[in-house]
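About this split. The held-out portion is used to measure sequence recovery: a designer receives only the structure tokens and must propose an amino acid at every position. Recovery is the fraction of positions where the proposal matches the reference. Here is one held-out target exactly as it appears in the evaluation file.
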């Protein structure tokens, strides 16, 4: 008997982490069936005198945000990591701990308080990518920084306390667990095949086309075969590069274009400013050769059936492994419809 992805409960394997997701497509045949609600539209001003990220305003710690004109980065006033912390270790029987040094940065995407990435001009999104590139290279060059994590939490539903368009960078001395897992699986494939794992993967997806959202000369946007979140997506460069610092000027423009296209598609699914957590995964900055790494960006949006109904990771998912009803193919089909 052959497996029917549209009807049969089944598990899918994540080639990057070695983990599995349970898919139960029989529980809902179409991800957009049922009640669809529009979120309450909030028209934000271009400048908010109470926003500490708006140009010229005073932040919570008393520092003044300069009158910046495009992108702006600064050290997080209340960073989760500190550059001057101890590196001492603790061991007591089974209990272990160690100090963790790092630097936390805030990246303001625009001085315009009313914007989000899908609303920004292409050239302005490229400036954000330029700054991501600059920060990755500069932070990664510091002797105590072995990993640089670039990410964005968009929307109050994702715990974002400030709606001003911004993201964060956490750079630290240890290499986080997700990166360790992805490094292991990419390295194993590299040693066996002498080729990037993700390059082989996107070549297959470009042939199958079932999970493609959009594509341009330098990048593909897909719903990964092993997606956990309802409208999870990945942006992957077609060229095998290890980190954002290797992007050329033309590739950065193509990256900006596909980033805008994908986030606009998100917004159209439920006619709302689509919340998500997005993050860039790339080679560690520990000075070692990471030829196996293939830079990519992942989006985890929580919305399930409408602008107000979201997916929760509870019960089975907390105690066993992730589960989804909407298949990756269904989600990709809906997002393709939303691309102009």
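Reference sequence for scoring:
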């Amino acid at each position: 008997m052959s497996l029917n992805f549209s009807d049969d409960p089944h598990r899918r394997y994540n080639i990057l982490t070695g983990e599995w997701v349970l898919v139960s497509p029989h529980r809902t045949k179409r991800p957009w069936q049922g009640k669809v609600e529009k979120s309450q539209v909030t028209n934000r001003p271009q400048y908010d005198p109470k926003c500490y990220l708006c140009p010229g305003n005073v932040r919570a710690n008393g520092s003044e945000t300069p009158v910046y004109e495009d992108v702006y980065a600064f050290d997080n006033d209340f960073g989760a990591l500190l550059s001057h912390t101890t590196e001492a270790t603790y061991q007591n029987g089974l209990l272990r701990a160690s100090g963790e040094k790092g630097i936390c940065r805030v990246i303001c995407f625009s001085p315009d308080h009313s914007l989000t990435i899908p609303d920004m001009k292409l050239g302005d999104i490229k400036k954000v990518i330029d700054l991501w590139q600059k920060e990755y290279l500069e932070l990664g060059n510091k002797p105590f920084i072995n990993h640089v994590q670039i990410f964005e939490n968009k929307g109050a539903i994702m715990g974002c306390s400030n709606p001003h368009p911004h993201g964060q960078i956490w750079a630290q001395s240890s290499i986080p667990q997700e990166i360790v897992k992805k490094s292991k699986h990419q390295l194993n494939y590299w040693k066996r095949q002498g080729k990037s794992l993700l390059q082989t993967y996107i070549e297959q997806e470009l042939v199958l086309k079932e999970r493609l959202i959009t594509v341009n000369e330098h990048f593909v946007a897909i719903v990964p075969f092993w997606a956990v979140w309802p409208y999870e997506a990945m942006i992957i460069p077609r060229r095998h590069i290890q980190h954002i610092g290797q992007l050329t000027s033309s590739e950065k423009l193509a990256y900006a274009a596909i980033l805008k296209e994908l986030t606009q598609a998100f917004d159209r699914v439920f006619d709302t400013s689509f919340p998500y957590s997005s993050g860039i995964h790339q080679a560690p900055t520990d000075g070692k050769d990471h030829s196996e790494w293939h830079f990519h960006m992942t989006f985890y949006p929580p919305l399930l059936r409408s602008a107000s109904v979201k997916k929760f990771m509870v019960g089975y998912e907390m105690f066993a492994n992730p589960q989804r009803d909407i298949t990756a193919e269904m989600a990709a089909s809906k997002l393709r419809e939303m691309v102009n």
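Annotator remark: The mean pLDDT is 94.
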